[in-house]
UniProtKB/TrEMBL annotation:
InterPro entries xref list: ADH-like_C, ADH-like_N, ER, GroES-like_sf, NAD(P)-bd_dom_sf, Trans-enoyl_RdTase-like
Family per similarity comment: Belongs to the zinc-containing alcohol dehydrogenase family.
Full protein name: Chaperonin 10-like protein
Taxonomic source organism: Lasiosphaeria miniovina
Organism superkingdom: Eukaryota
């Protein structure tokens, strides 16, 4: 593409984003140039801006992972959808592209690889579409991380349960939706004002994590329901110890598996017979990662959005200012949100 576009760049480590003109890139053979209409924010964005972690390999950097918009141009190897003019959502992240600023989300035109670009049904707005990419993929990565194949479909008589600690978070809402589709009976923690919403997404029972007896409440429900709870996704910081407290009572003599999404510190709590793994996509090779991304976006997400079995979540909270508003919106996310996804219109 000839010309330039506006981008919010991070000029150096621990700086504020600045809006500047950048050259608009050409797509690689398997890539799509997207005219960005909406950007969603994630904790990794303010962490990279304010601490440089996870590492930012190239400065000036273009941060961000989640966009929705319109296809502007497609690479030579892309012969079918998405055609130019299509409404799409995409995971546009320099994280999987050696820090390449052309692939970051915080700009008017970004590059995404075709495996991570999905057509947006007409009923889903750009703002809603932007809530999905990285958090949806993270929810699926979690199952794969602890050895649960994405082909798994438990039947009710299998009595397989899962605990999702932090269900109202962005990743948590997709953990709930995908756990239901895998066939788990889904036990979730969240603040009380989110319980009804999480039940609409697929939670069988939701517990207020502020309650001093939340662990025994969950254990009692599992025992009453007569299900096997050996599996958990800890979505938020601080969720590992109470999750292990639950599993101690519910796993019996069986082995249990826990996937933890925030950074897993070396001195994290442990429990005999429980395997604890940090949530990360399969990256043994580029081919393995691309196949996994295709399964996440083109098998699970495209089909889920078309059939209505996956819905954008949680509700969006639109912040003003477009690219110029990103610093303030990231500051707001850093303070904390409750069951909302911060989105900017671009
Ligand atoms: N490993 C990976 O690949 C990967 C990828 C993406 C994100 N992450 C990480 O995943 C985590 C979640 O990210 P996110 O964007 O989904 O977060 P988020 O939406 O910002 O999380 C906010 C929610 O966290 C909930 N929460 C906070 N403390 C809680 C607690 N003690 N128990 C239960 N819920 C609690 C709050 O629930 P209530 O409103 O109910 O109070 C709030 O709604 C972050 O640490 C992020 O860095 C990891």
């Amino acid at each position: 593409m000839t010309g330039t576009h506006l981008a919010a760049i991070l000029p150096e480590k621990r700086a504020r984003l600045q809006v500047v003109e950048r050259a608009t890139p050409e797509p690689g053979p398997n890539e799509v140039v997207i005219e960005v209409k909406a950007i969603a924010l994630n904790p990794i964005d303010y962490s990279q801006r304010d601490t440089g972690m996870p590492p930012v390999p190239v400065y000036p950097a273009v941060l961000g992972c989640d966009v929705a918009g319109v296809v502007a141009k497609v690479g030579a190897n892309i012969t079918t959808a998405p055609a130019p003019g299509s409404r799409v959502l995409a995971m546009a992240t320099s994280f999987f592209h050696d820090g390449s600023p052309d692939h970051g989300a915080f700009q008017k035109y970004t590059l995404a690889q075709s495996e991570a670009v999905v057509a947006l049904p007409d009923a889903i707005s750009f703002e809603q579409g932007a809530t999905l990419p990285i958090c949806f993929m993270t929810a699926l990565n979690a199952w794969v991380t602890i050895g649960i194949s994405l082909d798994t479909r438990y039947a009710p008589e299998d009595k397989q349960a899962v605990l999702i600690w932090g269900g109202a978070s962005s990743v948590g809402t997709f953990a709930v939706q995908t756990a239901k589709l895998l066939g788990f009976r889904v036990y979730v923690t969240a603040s009380p004002w989110h319980h009804e919403y999480l039940e609409t997404l697929g939670a069988h029972a939701v517990f207020d994590y502020h309650a001093s007896d939340v662990v025994s409440q969950i254990v009692d429900a599992v025992n009453r329901d007569g299900v096997a709870l050996h599996t958990a996704h800890c979505v938020v910081i601080g969720s590992l110890q109470p999750t292990l407290d639950v599993l101690k009572e519910t796993k019996g003599a069986s082995a249990a598996r826990v996937v933890y999404s925030p950074p897993l510190l070396p001195d994290h709590p442990t429990l005999d017979g429980v395997e604890i793994k940090w949530n990360f996509p399969p990256m043994q090779s580029e081919a393995v990662l691309n196949k996994h991304m295709y399964e996440c976006f083109h098998v699970w997400l495209r089909n889920g959005l078309e059939s209505g079995t996956i819905v954008p979540s949680p509700p969006v909270q639109i912040e003003d200012g477009g690219l110029e508003g990103l610093n303030a919106a990231l500051d707001k996310l850093k303070v904390g949100v409750s069951g909302r996804k911060i989105v900017l219109q671009i």
